[in-house]
Design a protein that fits this description.
homooctamer; alpha/beta; Rossmann fold; five-stranded parallel beta sheet; four-stranded mixed beta sheet; 11 helices; about 40% helix; about 20% strand; PurE_dom (chains A, B, C, D, E, F, G, H); P2CMN_synthase_LarB (chains A, B, C, D, E, F, G, H); NCAIR mutase-like protein (chains A, B, C, D, E, F, G, H); hydrolase activity (chains A, B, C, D, E, F, G, H)
Chain lengths: ~260, ~260, ~260, ~260, ~260, ~260, ~260, ~260
């Protein structure tokens, strides 16, 4: 509710077109549903056609089912991240429009079509082992209405694999680099292009990799300017950030 | 040099329009100057009208002067980051078009005008102590040709300061949040808008802040989706990333 | 045994009202039972009507049963924290007045009624996944005789959920904020009120969350003044601290 | 501005007693002063008679002077923490009611009297080296209108020093324990009393003390229930938290 | 083989009482058995009547059986630490003189009697959960021929439990303190006595305990002088160190 | 494709001996196979007779089978590291020339003979528990065509075991030291010889060993000059590095 | 005051040989002097002939002078650790019996003779750079009445230097090993002898040494049994612990 | 002294060609000079023509002068690392054959010529700021008799700078990569060549670089096989390791 809305509401009260109690109600009736254990936030999806998102870790199956039931009633698309297989089976009881990506632990419930953007997001991985995280980014960006391309297994140990695919880097508007180990790929890609690069460190590695810390630090300290880094294994966050960027681009294109 | 360029070059060789040695030269003559201790990379600025950037820490004044002398000859704008005051004095001998921002330790040498974008980047800080880092982001984005606005000292300890400025958040296309301490501002801002938010943790804090680690972890673990995080105190990186995003937006607008 | 007690004891010895051996006994007979592997401390509950508390992790079921058997004889209420389900089954054999909260891993054995305070403790969570820890705080404070209210799932990613519940914050005398991820909720709540706020970081998160470290550091570095922080996932400690505060408030009220 | 205020405002608009523009103004005119680089928050002091607080680290002397000048106009007491001596000299130019505690790096500007509470806060230290941090807590609590007592240098290496002072622990309503090294004093004190204990780890130590981390972890992991911990060397935060507790106690006493 | 031995050997060679090859053999025949995957070191037990010790973690059952078979032939006592139950079952096939302490994961094979020292080692624990580690120390010291006493569950949260047992501290010659959580017990004990105190941090705790790091740092930073600290959960090392000290005491007594 | 190759290619184009499209093909046909989820890199093995290597962690069995199938067609030897037993069973279906080293989690598929070098690599371990990692180094170096010797269980706690085997150290050209615990063996070996020493820290240890960090730091800080350190438990990397060194030695010998 | 003392005191009260107030006084008059900012603990020196010790870091010169003045009156020897040179100059004003060891930052004020023990403590260092810490141990042990020997610069990079001095190791009763870098010397020495070894990690090193952490972890994880470790650079603690051990040995010898 | 030497010595004793005391002397006269505070080890230089090396940090100027004086008498070349300028001035008094490299803090005293190897060591840096560390490696390798080449400022942010210099990589036998920031250069170089690559992480960076930790972890986790890593900023160690490798190569060449 922005300044303009408030001014209009006040004007209606002044003109007698709105009772004080009604005005109170409008000011107070915030766009979330209260389930007791969860306040479902329909805010963003109402405004944006965005899917609603549930982070499943630490929630009981019953809680997740309650939240999803509430969401389904509104007809929105739903993305459930960090979902174990048993969550999937629990939600299967609620709807048939459901798909489970086991290695990415992500559930997609698609109730309505999403448009595709003209601009492209390219998701690049260092190795094959990084694909589950990359897939989380791909699905997220896709559900948010973006055109998404992939370029997998082009890590710097054999840099000709990347250099041989520079055309793909050039065609993209936003690039997500998903890499474990030393995560050097993010720096190299960022040095090759002049567009937004989002770096996703993965926990692929062992020993002094410390479950992704080595990749994370590598990306935060990139000698290439202007990488935006998300949490370790946070494909969802990268896909979401890429989408907010792409939305700005599309809006400019359509103006 | 892309596939099309190579094909054309080969065609010229075939047609006798280009000698083998000339072709070799074109394939090999990469756009950097070799100073021995530094390979000055004119690549980006040539292509983009971008300023050239020097990271000063760890370089001797002589080295920096050598590099800047080389850059000045090409007429580019120059940004020198992490520059102690003595670096500024050393460079003053080379040019008058130079300005030093002491608390941000940044030197600007502006030799040519830069255009302004239609889209806006908004730089927000949690406290007054975060301003030197914010200023680095502002100057960087400005030098890269962006329209930049500021909203300072709106940290979450008095959240009405932020909520009272939501219009500024709405007007911006890209938001950079600069915050030390617990860095919660990034999450709150990101929850209020639906646009790209770049988070810059600062080293403002003490004790268990660990010189910025607390802010950094806070931002990487934001419950708000899709923050892109840069290194601690890396105002430059945030300004640069915001600029690459803005460039995509402007290109879309102009198509 | 304070100075006054000692003086009285000495006076009785002097007056011949107490034998030296009896005096020795009183000086030595400390209020704990020695089970060999555990010294059960009845001290606090005797004095306070407090329940007795067992930290179960690392103790064998036999040891826990021995300790609880000893406690049951004294008629006190008992709180067993960090208790696996098998501990619950072992204790079920000892008493029927037993309840197990599976997700909070807490066992309650209530043998006597506890009074309710006039002042209120409000337990707030950032997300649904933080509820098991919040529940530990709720049960602990409840068992210690406090009036406890709840406000769940009001994290800062959708700050209108919190702002829409400010009345609940205002009614409380002490607030416990339970939050994982970046734990920013504690700072925002603390900035909105002017009362004791106890912050409980949770291990809800992944990657660079480091099992709660990110939330912990965030809370320790809050830009809002005067948060008291407890260990990661330590709902018990928060409930206990809130109760000691409430006890001081109630005592002042009753004077 | 709470629900009741909004209802009244809306009623005035309805009755024509308030113009829409005036209502907008009242809704928007939030109680802070905007200095550009700082938004001075008079909120709390207006409501509470609390002093206004400035965290000086990272702010320029000019900025601090600007903020204090603004505060002085309102007649509030002022507390400047983490202030180097040069800050003190800069502020001396503005007022004579100023005092500087060099080892605690705290500046006090007292423009109005503060009342004293009936309840007592006791500040305890492990060693003599912890006194500067303890002093920060003492001054903060004192400025916030509390009765404060001290018990210094009673660390656990000579536990008879603490045991010989148990009467002081008993007389206090809230205890702040300030300790470096292994910080064990907090646990021992907390085990001896049944009241709120706030633990302040200090950076007193060396080697594997890691500038206070050892004390911090020790206090967070106390085997004694219900310690509230603040950041390393954060005497201010402890004094502030103690004061919010004491305020609740006093309010109950006066009801 | 010390200087005197070498001189005698050389003298025998000179005198023709020893052939060069024999001398070579004596110089080379080091007291260990080579099993290929393990060099069993009989050195210490030969010299000292000490048991032989195997660290089981990371060794296959076959390897452990091979090593123990070799040891059994020499008639020594054997201590196997960090042994899973399946190791115990594997070794049961080799000998009947075997005992397994499940919670301490330690196996004792006693083939010969060990004497008892006059001096006493006292093993103290903070809580009941620390007993498995304490037991490792007790068994180790016992197997090495020491008189060992125990004082369990006297942590500082109820310090009267420790103060009520000061006589036991006074009777001991060497004290091992085993404590998790904040490990404060080591400091308090060390402050009460004037004898060697060996501190064993345990992994008993959670959250910011970091699997024993909090206890470890606490003990390394003790304000009480002269604690010797061993690795987290290293009851064996503490028992062994106590025994080397006791051996020096006994030797002095017997001179 | 080096400068000389490009010049020849250009000359052929000029002379009409090569069509533009053919030239394009040669410039673009990089030596890797694209499986979509993986770009198999035949580069090194083609050039060197080296085996192809797969890092199995994080890859699905189907992906691994796809990659190996592609490799088998080229007749190369294959090394699969970090392979669970189920990977082995999946690959058994593809070929009989396969061997699985369970404790080292390494799979060897040998399709062609490898030569042996004249120079020797010696793999030394501190304890028996380090052998699985050592074995990974041995197999890797062996598959890469090196002569490999072993010296196991010669840790510094019984230094005579090492000193009694100095001849083996002298005969080797390159030494790999594999050690957990405090990893001191690497320093001692490096002090005894004057040849390349590669240090492999292992995760053998507990408590403050932090899964290999203690050994890693120990080796990085060796007081003996010139150790090359690889990641924790990275026997493969050590074997590979030793092999690149040996290859240089052999090339010099054969010139 | 032990059980026997209390019984006697009670008997005197009973017999009228002691008034209640006197008895109170004796029970309360604990052996420390209260300076307000410091409670000087004469306990140990009274009982033991031990010097009194001041940890100077974080104390003002005035505080240190106050404490030392109080100590001097009792005629005890005094040891001031972590003392900057200006502390030395401040104390020079109080007494002439004062000596300052600049590199060890330790001040000795010797007012009375100390006896020498028959048993020997040997202090060994890895390098020359470790000597300042070793010297702190030597002086501490010396002041506490022990016979102390030295063996410096025998680090494991040239192990023959240590092996050539095994006789010194054999003659000692207790060995203190002071080492930085990878700290391997402690393990090697401990493996060579069968007596108490106290390990002192030093901050000598750089980079991944982390100011002593590498040495500390190395010593805590020693593969040689039974090292007792003290804090980084804590020569004082090592000297003190060695002395408590030696005191037990001497007592046994003299019985 | 190997087996053969001992056998010959024993034979001489047997034959009466060597007295027992002489034999003792030969067995005991180890090749180091004892200065009390330092045992100068002439071992390696005697055998190898290697320079003697002093690590200066933590040593007093007097100690360093004493050690160098002893070394100078033997006519060896000397390398002093981590030497502050005042050390240089102290040593200037001893000899004129001395040179100081200020930014690398290394002193070279060259008393005799060193030969050059046929094989080449190439030292590569990511940036200009890494040169001081690279220079330490260059000087060390040079003093040890190696042919050393340089390739500076070819970091991955502009990868064409590296790719344009592949010929230099091909000509080298051993490559040392010196890089700060994210240290990705080591992986990229290692992927381009098939020879020993030694990686030196530098402390060039800020914030989450943690003084070199980010570069170190990056290099330890390289996706390119077989990097040998040395400590942060340890140019000396890299030069030394490269030299031991080169020595093996040269020996093979000369056989």
């Amino acid at each position: 509710m922005n300044n303009k809305d408030i001014r209009e509401l006040l004007a209606k009260v002044k003109n007698g077109n709105l009772e004080v109690d009604q005005a109170m109600g409008q000011l107070k009736d915030l766009p979330f549903s209260d389930l007791g254990y969860a306040k479902v936030d329909h805010h963003r999806s109402l405004r944006n056609g965005y899917p609603e998102v549930i982070y499943c870790e630490g929630k009981s199956n019953e809680e997740i089912k309650g939240i999803v039931t509430n969401m389904l009633e509104r007809g929105n698309n739903i993305l459930a991240t960090r979902a174990e297989e048993e969550v999937y089976h629990a939600l299967e009881e609620l709807t048939d429009d459901i798909e489970y990506y086991e290695r990415s632990k992500i559930i997609v419930i698609q109730q309505e079509e999403v448009a595709e953007t003209e601009s492209e997001i390219l998701v690049v991985t260092g190795g094959t082992s990084d694909i589950p995280v990359a897939q989380e980014a791909v699905i997220t960006a896709d559900m948010l209405g973006n055109t998404v391309k992939r370029l997998y297994d082009v890590g710097v140990a054999g840099i000709h694999r990347l250099l041989g695919n520079q055309d793909k880097l050039k065609e993209a508007n936003i690039i997500i680099v998903v890499a474990g180990m030393e995560g050097a790929l993010a720096s190299v890609v960022s040095g090759l292009v002049d567009k937004p690069v989002i770096a996703v460190p993965t926990s692929v590695g062992y020993g002094a990799h410390f479950d992704g810390v080595a990749s994370l630090l590598s990306m935060l300290n990139s000698c290439a300017s202007g990488l935006g880094v998300v949490n370790i294994d946070n494909g969802f966050g990268a896909g979401y950030l890429a989408s907010t960027i792409n939305r700005q681009i599309e809006q400019a294109r359509n103006n």
